[in-house]
Amino acid sequence: MNDIIVAISTALGKGAISIVRLSGEGCIDLVNKCFKGKNLTKVDSHTINYGFIVDNDTIIDQVLISVMKAPKTYTREDVVEINCHGGIAATNKILELMVLNGARLAEPGEFTKRAFLNGRIDLVEAEAVMDLINSKTEKARIQSVNQLEGRLTSVIRKFRQELLELLANVEVNIDYPEYEDIEVVTIDNIKDRVGVMKNNLTEIIKESENRKIIKDGINVAIVGRPNVGKSSILNKLLGENKAIVTDIAGTTRDIVEGSITLNGILLNFIDTAGVRDTLDVIEQVGVEKSFEQIEKSDLVILVLNNNEEITKDDEVLIDKVKTKKYITVINKKDLDKKLDISKYDLENVIYTDTLSVDGIESLKSKIIELFNLDEIDNNVDIFTNTRQITLAKEALNVLSDVETGINNDVPVDMVSIDIKRIWTLLGEILGENYSDELIDQLFSQFCLGK
Question: Which of 96, 238, 259, 336 is the most buried (most CB within 10 A)?
């Protein structure tokens, strides 16, 4: 971390402004060598300075340069941001010039990685940065900001402080074993406080798993036989003609995707190929993909034709969706009814007519009901990714082991080993202890320049 890193921090393309960012000791001197304007080494921190980036006597671009001196910067190192015009050629030329003068191209997420390693943010806050960048809905943005402000961090630190206090009580018991009353008080204290912590952590994990949809959205597969109206339903949901609609069975041979936001949650719709026995090789591949989407989806919309009797292909689909959360859409309700679903015990039945919007709002309402979208509240502290939830569950399991040990009269010094393990696991969530491989893998998911 003793070198200077540089990267383009804005999307590369045509635009009003591009930003080339540098961080590391000596970056102000480096940029100053290529700058025609004020002496950047002598300007005040957190100032913007007008001038030109030059290569010897050749002007590369007219720029505004932000100078931010350590430690009050994003990385806690000296940081320089070159605000240039948003053309590809000018931006790349400035980047090239910085590298030629001694900077190193930054790895993905390396600026945030340095912020973490230098102690400005913890691992939960670092992950919140990535979540904020990737947010596609307002609820996801709010959740990311809550994490970035340290709300979850505060909860975890409170847990860890309580564990330290328990360990302090245990140490007293170990140091003075001749006092039996101390042991009784210590065991009772541990049992009560561990019980409370277990309940609190269980609730947070439960809420976290229920609210993963804020970040990830809901993947919805629309399935059915050919020509039952799947593509029409997708188009009505999206409000655009995303999928081709014809009277020819098998028109949709590959998945067609589209997204909408419903009650602040992203719904990712996938219109699948019609499921039927077919000799067409390409259509067979589409059918297999349809089955794969059923397995991968959070919700399945099974579309049946009101104007046709149940077929064997329908029965295959009915059998497959029964293991998933699903909605049954009886389409073409304006036509003569020939469909009888009485013996199939289908759930969440909605009737639609895709020649109009009739039924589509009922479908949306049913999705809101199934996922309790009206009840999702951003003012709840939750774990936001698999890494955090996995560590929290492991800590919860060890808490259960502590309870079991106490109930089985395990010596208090043995109980302390489990308490220390819980303290360590919660610390891993914050990044208090970590492996280099984990950090490298995590930050490699960031975009360049962040």
Answer: 238
